[in-house]
Design goal:
Blueprint: H1 12-20, H2 32-59, H3 67-82
């Protein structure tokens, strides 16, 4: 039986509302394209966190990913998303 892969992501409206909470001025607007782009970036960020957590669990010979594995990779995930990347961008 073939494995089915469902596309999971963030809703554009949810991302828009979340980002709007951080706008300093009430009249600041977010375009639909910007919300879609941010939703895609969030999806990639979460996927990367899942992959790194799985690798951490495997390195510890664990069959299941626990919150401790996520907590161990979180500093590198956050620092790599806020600083320069390995390609120097």
């Amino acid at each position: 039986m073939a494995e089915q892969s469902a596309e999971i992501g963030f809703k554009k409206d949810t991302v828009s509302k979340l980002l709007s909470c951080f706008f300093k001025e009430e009249k600041t607007k977010l375009s639909g394209d910007a919300a879609l782009l941010m939703a895609e970036m969030l999806k990639i960020f979460v996927q990367e966190a899942a992959v790194r957590s799985q690798k951490q669990a495997e390195s510890e010979d664990c069959d299941q990913v626990d919150i401790e594995h996520f907590e161990k990779i979180l500093p590198q995930l956050v620092s790599s998303s806020t600083g320069s990347t390995k390609w120097g961008f």
